[in-house]
Amino acid sequence: MNMKKLILTLLAGVSLLAVHTIAQAQMLINGAGATFPYPIYSKWFDEYAKVDPSVRFNYQSIGSGGGQKQITAETVDFGASDGPMSDENLAKAPGKILHIPTVAGADVITYNLPGNPKLKLDGEAIANIFLGKITKWNDAKIAALNPGAALPDLPIVVVHRSDGSGTTYIFVDYLSSISPEWANSVGKGTSVKWPVGLGGKGNEGVAGQVKQLSGAIGYVELIYAKQNEMPYADVKNAAGNFITPSIASVTEALATAKIPDDFRFSMVNPPGEKAYPIAGTTWLLVYEKQKDPTKGRKLVEFLNWAMTHGESIASSLDYAPLPDSVQQRVLERIKTIKY
Amino acid sequence: MVSEAATLLNPPRMQSAGSGFGDRAFRWLTLLMAVSVFALIVLIGYELAQGSHLALHKFGWRFLAGSDWDPVNEVFGALPFIFGTLVSSFIALAIAVPISIATAVYLTELAPLWLRQPLVMFIELLAAVPSVILGLWGIFVMVPWLRSHLFPWLQSTLGFLPFFKGAIYGVSLLAGGIIVAIMIVPIITSVSREILRSVPNLQREAAYALGATRWEVTRIAVLSYAKKGLFGAVILGLGRALGETMAVTMVIGNTPQIVASLFAPGYTLASVIANEFTEATTDMYLSALFEIGLVLLGVTVLVNALAQLLLKTFAGPGVKPQH
Prior knowledge:
With 339 residues, chain A is α/β, with parallel strands linked by helices. Chain A contains 13 helices and twelve strands. Chain B has 323 residues and is mainly α.
């Protein structure tokens, strides 16, 4: 019995030591935030582990709000957010936080109509539908945009997100920019007071409701709509062209959007000819002055890799990569991170 | 012989607890456990109040009376959520209580012995289904069926009542109530069964002796004796119903409004916290959500207190719930 105990204790001690040594060899960098880019970030961390096996990344998709809070509280090494941090929230951080845009996505307008016609919509029509002013599918304004389409006499059932989300932020940002009435009465945020409509939880909730209700209309992420083969509308952009949502049209929107120095930009309704108007980017939030020099160096190395190699694999997961012009500017900004 | 019987009827008093370190330690330990439960509830209430002080300061009582929930302009009012929580819980009770009590009566009084164990097992299994799974089933199976079959039928037969007027989307307060009913049936049934089982057989035998029929025995001897305990079981179910989150948020439509129609979508206190907490970026918004939590705690305590008060009016002998 004593011999057995001795062997077991030795075994435990050795394994603890072994685990400790292995843990020491790999550095752990923690991040938390947005749910939208979670798939692409996971793929990046996976690929980067092959490039540099000495560092491991851990990312928790707790939501943009959580990401902003945790980076401010310095409980994580980097944050991620679908919406830019407000001046108010930036002021709360103990140091200067840089916004690093990584990839972009789009919101598509999905609907459920008998016969599944391909619809064209413009900003005004979308705003009026979501404000509750256009209530039937065969309304004159929708018919004018879609000559020849068989629009039924069904009431429009609006479906929106019930949970706070970057997807909602992009959509209401767009509506605020093209409709003064929306900007005044509703405004923009990750959660808003919707004038009409049912709330579904997550992209799945909205998609589920739209698929079940005849005459429903809602907004979901482009990636989600593509992977679930949902019908979506062509939207008229600022240049007057009806654009089908796609990765190319989102990258085009990024190329023509006005991007200020601190990278906190909105890319809805950009002027480009082929740009899709309802799109937004997602950011990584890092401190300009990194507290830990080794971690800081590893983080910067990863960001450089992501901005060059990572961008090229973004489209394999249906995310729109940054155009070259923006990539160069971001790489310049990454050089300013001190560690 | 007589002295033996006397000893049995009047057992000698045990030595008072306090002698021996073990006894005292046990007494203090169990006291500590009991007090810690109470302290936990007080601590939760305190933390909620702390977190919501911004909103409490800004809105005061208007928070409970306001119907606006506007995160952009930071105007918050909890009335639609309180309405949704209370209505969906009471619909759930109205559906679940008759089913549960009837099931419990069947299981204790009428079911053949070989059937009792399997039935009990199935009911416990229902309790084990996670809330999210039930929510998914609700949104993909139950809601379409409600929308195409039950709701139109209700509207055609009872459409003159204001509760059954209005457009039918499927997701609604009524759907929320139904799914919560499914979740609380196992609890109420289990506790009711225990209560009914504890009714002494003497009561039943006495009723039979007076010439009562099967149903009269159940009604007079069992149910009325167990009234208090059954009420307690219902209150347990109500407590669960008030706090149910995931399943409800998937089928209730998530629209903060107060309308008479049960087919209209609604919103509950627990759902709004689950939906909006992770993305709440401003302090006032977070504080308002904390206050919703405080209101939910308050509503639960209030409903329980009211129930206890009602219980006192049904004073009488009976089996108290052994929980």
